[in-house]
Fold this sequence. Notes:
Elements: E1 4-9, E2 19-24, E3 29-32, E4 41-47, E5 56-62, H1 69-83, E6 87-93, H2 109-120, E7 124-125, E8 138-142, E9 148-153, E10 165-169, E11 181-183, H3 190-199, H4 202-206, H5 211-229, E12 232-234, H6 248-265, H7 271-298, H8 304-314, E13 324-325, E14 331-332, H9 335-361, H10 376-384, H11 399-402, H12 406-413
Parallel strand pairs: 5-6
Antiparallel strand pairs: 1-2, 3-4, 4-5, 6-8, 7-8, 9-10, 11-12, 13-14
Helix pairs in contact: 1-2, 3-5, 5-12, 6-7, 10-12
Amino acid sequence: MDGYKLFRKDGQGKKGGGVALYVREQYDCSELQYENTEKPESLWIKFRSVSNKGDVMVEVCYRPPDQRDEVNEAFFQQLTEVTRSQALVLMGDFNHPDICWESNTAVHRQSRKILASVGDNFLVQVLEEPTRGRALLDLLLTNREELVGEAKVDGNIGGSDHEMVEFRIRTQGRKESSRIQTLDFRKADFDPLRELMGKVPWENNMRGKGVEESWLYFKESLLRLQEQTIPMCRKKSKYGRRPAWLNSEILADLKHKKEAYKMWKIGQMTREEYKNIAQACRSEIRKAKSHLELQLARNVKSNKKGFFRYVSNKKKVKESVGPLLNEGGNLVTENVENTNVLNAFFASVSMNKVSSQTTALGSTDLGGGDQLSVEKEVVQDYLEKLDKHKSMALNAQHPRVLNIRGVAMLVWICRRDKESCGTL
């Protein structure tokens, strides 16, 4: 085929089988060879990124229905080596129609082995529709979910009885160092923060100042003390993030399992001993997942952000924003128009929320004039109910910090004289 490089691996000693991959000549890529006694029908092609964002490994695989266990184990070993440090996209006909990818269950022993390998290497199976009749034989796996997009199953090529799978590899999904700074509460020291805030003579320093001046003084003082006691860190992106259930004990179990596999391959351990170690490791992983999901379900009212983050990470298809209606009732479909509609809507909601909160904070007794008197207990109640799991606001005020010392906030907002109430 003109303009393309051909990589191929033919089936050995039989009719049919084999894999092939056509790559455009403009891409810098090369085939990797693995020296194994048992050689699976697979191609490993390494693509080098032009923009220095990292390399991507693409594998094409064909697994015959009667493939021997030794060949399967050789393939699993290659897969483990690649996924340690490479961004991987794996595709091919695996011939496992009995696997249910929604529940991660299988009937046959070899199918359960591929499920175990997918779990051990933290791979995600992208396809959901059947590729041959009602069976999902062709798989699309990746260890970086953001690398694969726009996957669809549609049509046939030539006389093949398999459906054609189309998808896009997003090389820009490679890891980039985040520039977003956030508070690192794991290394925060709250006792010195409370002590420092308690030493500030708030009332004396804000005497004679208006509400806006008092707020600016409080904000600047709090941010200065916050910098001294709470360090900053770069916000981690989803790319390369470990699963939430992965702890040090499970990492040790996985390492022990890999060492046991090597010992079994060189004859220093029996197959039954390795099998028992692998089953124990999978059992611990299932327990860790179940425990995490149970904790998230129990704490959903106090930690909604963590719950829905875990749920969204489990989704295989990302939801997109559909057509919206603008203020004039017209349907808009362009990204810029949708953004303007959403911005206008959220701005109106925020203004209504601020207005309602300001009204609730104000006392119904106006005294002798038109100025509001703020009740200290009402403001204290609002501060105590701040959701510490919310993100930091644009003014660099984090709910978790404001919740530490609510009395200090009352100094500037609960004035003894009846000044006009400002907006937080």
